[in-house]
Amino acid sequence: MLVAGFPAGSFAANCYLVAPAAGEECVIIDPGQDAEAGIEEVVREHRLKPVAVIATHGHLDHIWSVAPVCGARNVPAYIHPADRDLLTDPGKGLGLGAGQQLFGGLELSEPDDVRELSDGAVLELAGLRFTVDHAPGHTPGSVTFRTPATEEIPEVMFTGDLLFAGSIGRTDLPGGSYEQILASLARVCLPLADETVVLPGHGEQTTIGRERAVNPFLADLTPADGPSKGF
């Protein structure tokens, strides 16, 4: 599996392109601020053909470029319904007051084809399988995406702003809940194998085992029922 990522824009939100191999179809995860140029560079370098955009949640730093990327390539966007309204009203997720403009009057629109995600759904895209785990707490519609382990590589989880190396997502913005994010971590992350690779929405990659050992926010958590068995 090919995973190529880069930090997009001033927020440095990780945008990932995932494909079975170079020269094949790919999925774009979280195209943030001014991500089009970076996407084009990765597509050209690895000879990829994007077939979908999937969003871990609706905050602006992760969905800024969803509409232009989908429109330019005529591909659908996938997002959880609880965050779908942020595609067109991103200020709602940032707690802007009445009359406050977003980045000088920035206005976003929905792509022509938006498809809604649900907990436990399995997406068959670009020759890959992604299991969706609903993981509210950072936003009501936050999700993670997991690809299955093979003989060559361990399971990979794209965590968005649920879990970072050494930290977790903030919960002080509208729709955030510290109690919910801890419950999501216990249910979605902790039951996974130690070798599971974590590719977060910001910062460097890590593993579930490393976070289980050193992440202070996980120290007092115990695994819950576990994520949906999508494989």
Tally of extended strands? 14
Helix percentage: 10-25%
Examine the coordinates and then state which fold CATH places here, giving the name of the CATH topology.
Metallo-beta-lactamase, Chain A
Shape: globular
| Structural domains: how many | 1
Low-confidence segments, given as residue ranges, are none
**What is the arithmetic mean of pLDDT?**
93
Query: Major sheet, described briefly?
Result: 6 strands, mixed
- Summed up, the helix count is 5
Q: Which structural class do the helices and strands define?
A: alpha/beta
Cofactor: Zn(2+)
Domain Metallo-beta-lactamase: 12-202
Protein name: Glyoxylase, beta-lactamase superfamily II
Organism: Thermomonospora echinospora
Description of the structure:
With 231 residues, the protein is of the alpha/beta class. It has a single domain (2-214), classed as Ribonuclease Z/Hydroxyacylglutathione hydrolase-like (Metallo-beta-lactamase, Chain A, 4-Layer Sandwich). It is 18% helix and 27% strand. The mean pLDDT is 93. This is Glyoxylase, beta-lactamase superfamily II. Keywords: Hydrolase, Metal-binding, Zinc. Residues 12-202 form the Metallo-beta-lactamase domain.
